[in-house]
## 1
Amino acid sequence: MAAAAATLSAPDAEKLSQLKSAVSGLGQISESEKNGFINLVSRYLSGEAQYVEWSKIQTPTDEIVVPYESLAPTPDPVTTKSLLDKLVVLKLNGGLGTTMGCTGPKSVIEVRDGLTFLDLIVIQIENLNTRYGSSVPLLLMNSFNTHDDTSKIVEKYANSNIEIHTFNQSQYPRLVVDDFTPLPCKGQTGKDGWYPPGHGDVFASLMNSGKLDALLSQGKEYVFVANSDNLGAIVDLKILNHLMTNKNEYCMEVTPKTLADVKGGTLISYEGKVQLLEIAQVPDEYVNEFKSIEKFKIFNTNNLWVNLKAIKRLVEAEALKMEIIPNPKEVDGIKVLQLETAAGAAIKFFDNAIGINVPRSRFLPVKATSDLLLVQSDLYTLEDGFVIRNKARTNPSNPSIELGPEFKKVGNFLSRFKSIPSIIELISLKVSGDVWFGAGITLKGKVTIAAKPGVKLDIPDGAVLENKEISGPEDL
């Protein structure tokens, strides 16, 4: 990617210098956070152009994006234990459950059988440590939004056989667009004045928190980073073994795109390096080509494996200059800007970095109640904390599910289903309006249920709906 020289115009230099003095007076954040923020803003102002020369993009070879099937089998238990003793699992735990109508960290939403995302993560690592006699620790990267709640919640795992560490990602001030001042300087003293700058911040925060040096001193070598809401992101011994054997400093798990993933970032070969290409970096005239499944067949799952020594080297050298994602927001009628970065974009700075093209089962994110419907249904079972897809479903892709706004919040969603329907043979489900589901319902093929405005529509217990369009009781 062509990066413009980082020179600032006189007005921008003046802006930055005023911002620096304003930020220096913010007592709520550390010196390293102040420096990190000013560096980010300075890079943003210098307009490091992140455009791509389309003609230089190449499809990565199997050496760069390795097919999962080609990985060596899982090694023997003794070797496996020595691999696991060098591993740390880190879950990105900065998000709130607000979009799903929940208060507190998203990771404490109940996913299945009364267990939360965090419960499942802990059970998985407990089982791994018990089985191999290993000591894989769990790190949770919180944001200032989730820190206090998470610290209380992890106390319930005090008797588990895993060490759990929490640390906070950076806290940066939101920028007022009009005059380029930090929002907290405008009297916005609460949480609304601040933001966590995206998961690209994970590397600097590991270092600044002291966790990185502590892990290295314990002989840890790799960190497996994943979103806490991706139920498919479990420790994979074949991947770990491959990275250790081949000394890859960074690995991004990618998986084949479906029509639902057309906006996801993809891996490309560019000027001899592997790098992430996000939709925001694509020139307008090529966006449709970017979305096509033919040319760009894979997308980033955000399951990342990274060498800890390499993180230390690059953070110390201030070499991790990931593309900046400007995120405009409005707080109490004031237009503000959040500058963020993504962890996947760091791939181009690491030596011997690769992608691994993994099965879709390693990407099972729960972003909305429609995803919750999938994982709570008979399409999945729960074994040892792992959510496993039911073999009875022969179609490799999951049903597409669209639920109306009445189902958006978890509480409403749960109250509208007496029990979760059987969906093994479902292709698609669309629900809109005031619809209530009884117990023991089976949905097959393509089902659309659209209640008329102002009319409550009850689907009776035991109903079997196959390839149906329903708008009232007479269609049942």
## 2
Amino acid sequence: MNHFPWLTIIVLFPISAGLVIPFFTFYRKQNYSMVYFRYYNWISFINFHWRLGIDGFSIGLILLTGFITTLATLAAWPVTRNPRLFYFLMLAMYSGQIGLFASQDILLFFFMWELELLPVYLLLAMWGGKRRLYAATKFILYTAAGSLFILIGGLIMAFYNSNESTFDFQLLINKTYPLELEIIVYLSFLIAYAVKLPIIPFHTWLPDTHGEAHYTYGLIRINMELLPHAHSFFAPWLVILGAIQIVYAALTSLSQRNLKRRIAYSSVSHMGFVLIGIGSITNLGLNGAILQMISHGLIGASLFFLAGISYDRTRTLVLDQMGGIGTSMPKIFTLFSSCSMASLALPGMSGFIAELMIFLGVIDNPNYSFLFKIIIIIIQGIGIILTPIYLLSMLRQMFYGYKFSNTLTPYLMDAGPREIFILICLFFPIISIGIYPNFVLSIWNSKVNFLLSNNFF
């Protein structure tokens, strides 16, 4: 009993317990409403409350965050330099992300947004790559500047036309604003999300940081739910911006010779589909956007992890120096190819269902003209064609042909049991969602219907 892994059991038990929440019949039926589990009057003179809750929309992202963070911690093992600080920062980052998704107070939302920045900055600066200080500094400058717009927008909403401030989401839903003011507030939040999503042209920090966050959550939770009239005004522009982002980022990814930068720009391209789904203001489109957020969270994590273990073996990220490594690392080659197929939306995988729903969602909107729909669909189609081009060329440069450089390690070790276990854990839900998407769509579908019942123009 002295060697029984009590700490492991304690950590994994709440994760395992959380995974069964969506299976409760009562929760599925009531997932359009908010379930509060923590309420505390924190700073009374400004009505700032510690108000946390979950619904069908947030539970999916909370479970995804816990799942990815657990696997990321296992992927980083063993940490040889300052392991205690590393794991503390990982948990602090995780706490900020969970708090963000569960926040039901707009000032608490901003607080959790800021809470995440410091541990991410320290993780990048201390355990990042060769340009870690540059990447970390660029990340903190961009995101801190974007955060200011959340605070401005939140304060306007809280103090407008009221004797006392209110930051409660449930009360802010019932507030009305002049359309001009609502557009200004919407734009303020949109700038902040444009930095963190990222949306072009605020995307330049991402390739250096090699990561992404699903801050489209805020675009739906605050902009769409609390500011429906302004969302109706900006919706076609979101669709246009998303379509441009798909093609621009795909072309940029194709030109990259660095493996991680190619995957990073691929992430920017896939987030364009999320923008189109949110801008469609239809049941199919919005469900597809949320599914794309979940899907790409899994696919993006697997591709970045594979890039990391490839670098550990070859000690290079330059694609032209990786030719022919498929014969030395057949397991990594198989797993990399499978995850790349998922990223290019192969039928039977989660990305295909998400992008198909977004396609149909744009067509389903009666307020968009026929010409507008045709143009957006053609641009989306170009992006879908470009995706296999840059992903398959990446696989060809890495695993096929002859070695371009003699600097590679003569013997390349293939994937070990720990790495295979992590990738199977990521790939299994990708396949499961692709085969039976209703398994997850039913979790938030009622919430989507509730959102679409708002007074959109």
## 3
Amino acid sequence: MCKHILNSQVSIRAPCCKQWFDCAECHGEAQTHPLAKTTEMAFMCKKCKKAFRKDMTVYEESDEYCPHCDNHYVINAKTPHAVVGVEGEDARVDARMLKDDRIKELNKRSIFAPDDSTGHLG
């Protein structure tokens, strides 16, 4: 399961190490070498679990579908991002239904902070 692209429809086979990954970022996290570039890509459909190859030099609109099950694998990627969402029907009734998944920035102040010149005497 890819943590970078939530609706990934195919896995790609890296030509450099011959291993399967959900995306190029997954390859970058798992391997120490860069992803090799090639004109022929090997894919594995996550719907029918069958592998197929595509020549990227002559890529057409009909190549956006799995040749075995016609699964449309070229779709807009859904990437994870922080959101504020409502978990109930109406947030105006009960504000506890608001869910905040954003990362909160902690603003810690210290008297020993060298970059903070406000509040110093003298």
## 4
Amino acid sequence: MELMEVLEHKSYEEQLKEMRVFNLQKRRFRGDLITFYNRLKEGCSQMMKDVKARTSIDPILKTSGNEDQ
């Protein structure tokens, strides 16, 4: 018997459970979380590159503290 025939008379929730799939809202939320994480990771990576670039160019930024204090 084909899967579609088996699921044909079941509710949407029962079909998802049978196929072991989350509902659309949860799948979209998961996708949003993955996108957010990847953008956050890229932003942190870019920020570290910028900091390394600045410290290699400007030796003043390499100092550990502020001499004015």
